[in-house]
Every structure is written in C-alpha cells, then in structure tokens.
Amino acid sequence: MKNFPSGIRISTEKEDLICYSFDSSIADEKLPLAVAWPKSTDEIIKIIKYASDNGFSITPRGAGTGMSGASVPSDNCIVLSLENMRKMLDVDTRNMTVVVEPGIINSRLQKELGYLGYFYPPDPASMNICTIGGNVATNAGGPRAIKYGVTRDYVIGIEAVLPDGTVINTGGKTYKKTVGYDLKNILIGSEGTLAITTKIRLKMLPVPEDIITLLIIFNNLESSGDAVTKIISSKVIPRTIELMDRLSIEAVENYKPTGLPADAEAILLIELDGYPKTVKKEAERVVDICQTLGGEAVSAEDDIARERLWEARRSISPALYHIKPTKINEDIVVPRDKVASALIELKRLSEATGIKIISFGHAGDGNIHVNIMVDINDREEYSKGMEVAKKVFQIALNLGGSISGEHGIGITKAPYLAMEIKEKELKLMKGIKKLFDPFGMMNPGKIWG
C-alpha cells in the first residue's frame, strides 16, 4: 500500500494490525491491510475515497467491545478507528440535547452530563470503554433500557459519510420529525455496513431526584423470572431489573468477592428512580411482590453499597473466563412474560447436553445473556457448544423472541439470520444495503455473511 492521504495517521506496522485484528467476540482474528485514525469528517472522506480508488474495503471500529465480530477486519480492508474523534461538540440545555463525535466513551459522556444535572440513559455493561458511535452501530441497550429505552430512543440526528464520500445529515434538532423516510433509524443498528457516523445528536434527561436499589434473593430460578412479570404487570416500571443465576453469582464471588449470596439460585438487582415519595411506594410494592414468590429483599443503604452491587453485575463477563477459556456469549430476548420459561428451558438444555450454561442480563426487558462455557482448543466440546447456541436461538424464537437483543449480527450470528428473518424481508434489507453501498466496500461480510 502506498500514496496514503497526507496528514492522516495511518499505519501498516504489524503491531498495529494485530491490535486491530479482533474484537470481544469469538470471531477469528484477521489482519487488516492498514489502520487509520481520522480526527475529522474531512479526514474520513479522504480515507474512504482512497479506499474506493484502490479497491479496498472499510471496517469501522469504535472500542472493539462488540460481541458479534462486527468490527473484525473484512478482507482487503482498512480499519477506520474512530477513537480519536471523541469531543462533546455542543450541549444545549434549553432543548436538552448534546452533540458528540462517535469516539466519545459512554461513561465519559454520562459523567460530563452529570456535572450539569443531566444524564444519558443507555448504559451498556461495557460503558467504561465502549463508544457512543459503537453503541449507535449496534443499537446498544443496557440495564436501564426497561424504563428508558435503548440507543435508538435517544438519537435525534446523525451526520454520516457514505461510501462515495458524500456527507448526509439525517434527523435534526427537533424531537419530532415525519418528513420522508427515517434514514437515521436505518443507520442505527446497521453495524457499519452502510456509512460512517461522524456526529451524533442525542437527547438527555434531568438526573432523577432519588434512586432506591434493591437486591432480591431467590431460592428458586423460576420464581425470579415470575417476579419480573408480576412487577411489570403491577404497573411499576423500575429503571433496572437485572438477573443473575446461581452460576453467575458463584463466578463473581470466586473472581471478585462482593458479598453476594452464594447459596441463592438467582438474584434480581432492581433500581427505581423518580420523586422520593413515589419511589419509596414503588419499592414497597416491588418488595411485597417478590416476598409472595419467596424472595428476600435487601436495600442498598448508600451510594457505596449501590456501587458495590453494580460492580458485581459488571464483573460477570470477566469472571466467566475463570471457569472456561471460551464463552459463547449470546444475547437472546424474549417477551417479558416468557423470562421464566426461557430460564427453565436453558437449564434443561444445559443438563441434557452437559454443557455449562450461565445466564444473566436485563430480565426487565426480556434480554437474557446466555453464556455457553467451552474450551475452543477442545474442538469436540467447542463444536458441541456451537450446536447448543443454535438450540438457544430456537428456544428464544419458540417463545416469540429474537436471536439478538443488543449485540447485533456481525459475523458470529450471520449463519442464523434466516432462522428469524424471512426471505422477503431479507431481500428488502439487502436492497437497502445495495442502495447505500453499491460496490460492497462498507464492512463486507457482516450481517449477511
């Protein structure tokens, strides 16, 4: 490779290529041809035009925290890392919006807004390292999605560069807009296969006046799932209902002890926020519901106790690697009233196959993170684990759910896309891809395989 655009940091050094050859998924590593770190929209345009003129593809990348391989380099590709585009460009408190570049870290945005008395609700478990651009690319959610929604619910405007170098602006400054097709929402969740996002306008909300955090301990897995349904049907909408099964509790306590009840079959981490009197009444109702199902409630006494519980929740993923070297991490989603059924079916599948399955996640919106624990170096066990993954998807679909709630499709789920999306719908989606990217240079091999 030669004649790179001048003034842009681009590397072909092997050390850099290796560092950008993988993400957090189990997808195989692949070396790119080069890695570029643009700092502006103009530099992105130059890189895209260079790639187009020389027959190269582009793989956009945020922080590489994705679980489906969407940022693993494609064939003959330049990785376009957006990590140096991390500015907050405008905070509009009158209209409660903020404009950011795609490389800004989620938790940094939340911290900066917090100083002003505002917050940005979508909070993936990887919020301390994942970028807003990556969140937009996968339509990321998080624990607070049950009450506040996912990334798509907060994006009101996007500036993006198309594969031909054209800059488009979709959405705008207003919360409501019904003029033409909603190109903004087509870009959200497209996993870098349509365009490069360069600026994002987000909604922000006032920080709630009060928060109550509850830990509910269950000695029966099914009861924990039933509690989720009963809480929602009681017309109480907590801001989080997180579930951890016995194996995920044990994993965390062995990895980083935080005082979780190791003998529990499951726990729910429930938070409520809003006006103090309202929150107190809602918390009492939640406790009553859980107690009727055999749950034991413990309330976090202060911010330190609250953060300790959330630290335990965020420690699950790293803790699992101490059980097996490989976790096939799936993120199925089922209707809220089917959470208990899904947990039972997953437990039966684990017992029937002899493959350890560890479940946790955002039970409040039916999003269960199913971790199939295997050793990739044991080819027979790994192959069996992949067969289990397909059965996990079928469980979700049989219950009226989906094979992915927030991780996207990328490489790892591409072989299973047709299990959920019918031929006509697939044809329409591929037509959209062709219209945006007629020569297939944007992140090829992702979603469609």
Features:
449 residues, 18 strands, five-stranded antiparallel beta sheet, Alpha-Beta Plaits, alpha+beta, seven-stranded antiparallel beta sheet, globular
What's this model, at a glance?
The chain has 15 helices and 18 strands.
Task: Write up this protein.
The protein has 449 residues and is of the alpha+beta class. The protein has a domain at 210-317: Alpha-Beta Plaits, CATH 3.30.70. Helix content is 35%, strand content 22%. It contains 15 helices and 18 strands. The chain has helices at 14-19, 41-53, 106-115, 132-138, 145-148, 183-187, 221-233, 246-255, 276-292, 303-314, 316-320, 339-353, 379-398, 417-420, 423-436; strands spanning 9-11, 34-37, 57-61, 77-81, 88-92, 97-100, 118-119, 155-161, 167-171, 196-203, 205-206, 210-218, 240-245, 266-274, 296-299, 326-333, 356-362, 367-374. The strands form four sheets. A seven-stranded antiparallel beta sheet has the order 15-12-14-13-17-18-16, with helices on both faces. A five-stranded antiparallel beta sheet has the order 5-6-10-8-9. Strands 1-2-4-3 form a four-stranded mixed beta sheet, covered by helices on one side. Helix 7 crosses helix 9 (276-292), helix 7 runs antiparallel to helix 12 and helix 12 (339-353) runs antiparallel to helix 13. The longest helix has 20 residues, at 379-398. The radius of gyration is 22 Å and the shape is globular. The mean pLDDT is 95.
